[in-house]
Fold this protein.
Amino acid sequence: MAESAARRPGHTALIAGPERLTYAALWNGALRYASVLRTRGIGPGDRVALLLDNTPHFPMAYYAALALGATVVPVNVLLKAEEIAYVLGHSGAKMLLCGRSLLGEGEPAAHTSGATLLIVGGEETRADGRREVHYGDGGGAEDDDEAEDKDEDEAEPTEGVRAPSEVVVPGGVRGPSEVVAPGGVHGSSEVVAQEGVHDPSEELTPEDVHGPSLDALAAHACPLDEAPVPRAPDDTAVILYTSGTTGRPKGVMITHCNLIANIETTMVSPFDMRPDDVLLGCLPLFHTFGQICGMGTCFRAGATMVLTRRFTAEGALELMRAERCTVLMGVPTMYVALLEAAARQPDRPRLDRPRLDRPRLDRAYSGGSALPVRVLEEFEAAFGCPIYEGYGLTETSPCVAYNQKAWPRRPGTVGKPIRGVRAEIARADAEHRIELLPPGEVGEIVVRGHNVMAGYLDDPEATAAAIVDGWFRSGDLGVKDADGYLSVVDRKKDMIIRGGYNVYPREVEETLVHHPAVAHAAVIGLPDARHGQEICAVIVPRPHIARPDPALAEDIVRWTKQRIAAYKYPRRVEFVDSLPLGPSGKVLKRELLARFGDGRPGL
């Protein structure tokens, strides 16, 4: 961020609704935040938690903490108070920076854990009747629709957020015009005054009923006037918490070396991020995909990120048109939604370049979970834009392998390992040693290189089980072909054993989504007295299917039976309106197992 602000101070770094922040303004805001955090006792090695939506406050807070040598602990905004308190307590977070709209869960969590609370953004009416304004957090009170969204399960990776109306550059307010800090990135931020625009610093007060306001304090603070605190390569930069599919979430320690090496490498390939690129930032910034692959590579390249607080397919299409986005990063459910929205819009944009002088979306990247080949092919046919599918994990900072421009794409694979990283296939049943397998054999994907985490925070036993002989055991089953392309077969724990045969759910799902009535499919193994496990397909029908019935279920079973081996096809079909998703877009199969694992026989 500091380097890009020095190289391109007047270039637009961030677009949030009608607002634009230059690199100079964004970095100046981060330095003002850093100045406040330092006066509140934050220094090298301290842990600062961020419970923030996708607003300009997130990068300002993120880089403010890093500039002080502190460790950032991003928190999933969908968590409830007890879950947040666990993350704060386990990480040893000294401070929580909480969006005002998230105080309902964040404030009690901070109280329980003993973390100092600073409030970011939002708006509130003070006890004395004066309205206290903080731009950029979408307002303190949610409307009914938003309140319902917040209470839903983890159904959308970017649930419960919406675009900001105005953005505060701490130290002043601005309208739609861009702000550049004169005299370089460490100078005071000059505000471009607009008639009728109110300066919130006149009413902002450092304290309110909930606690201190970071924006109010930053409005009167001088930017940090010294270089960012140097840190060693193996010092922890970020602690990212896993989704906790096998118990309590684990804190993944990502070092400065992990962070910088992954950003520097992937910026060049696969993401090919250039200064004139415009990235549609619809992934949650608290998650490693949006934070490191998106925000990190974009800002390192000096490019522009168009930030959206809540993903909707129609909104994304409109942003692509309006902001002439060139890069899209998303999870498979987003690509499915974009296809469905495009089908409803006869005037949908072709995203291939109609004129050489007009920027357009010329590449898209998918991660987080498996992208069905059908979706990839339909998206490329509809939009004229290639999708590059890749693979990564929180523990690998995150990128491991990607389809890249340097060699032919192979749909259905996740490409080849990124530079400086090895990804191989090892025997999955050899728990305490690594035995590599030859090409063509299915086994556990193991990874080594600059991207592998330092370990799990305060969990040496889990770290020792995950990192064996210098290799990180992913828990994913995969296969490499003779040309070095990696394919992810499935999660090791999701594999179904039916009558002694191994069944990989992803293979069955890939078949199911080609059925004309199927929009999404998730395959799970349910307990079965005769076969050990029975195969169940959980189906989201396509929009034109008004009422799925037993006849459709039977047709899906019959159709699938004709296309895959007899031991693989589903004997039971269940219909749902939507699949439960985690923040990375992965289907939460544990919830499907809990819902449908009732012992009923199949069809």
The domain at 394-493 is CATH 2.30.38.10 (Luciferase; domain 3).
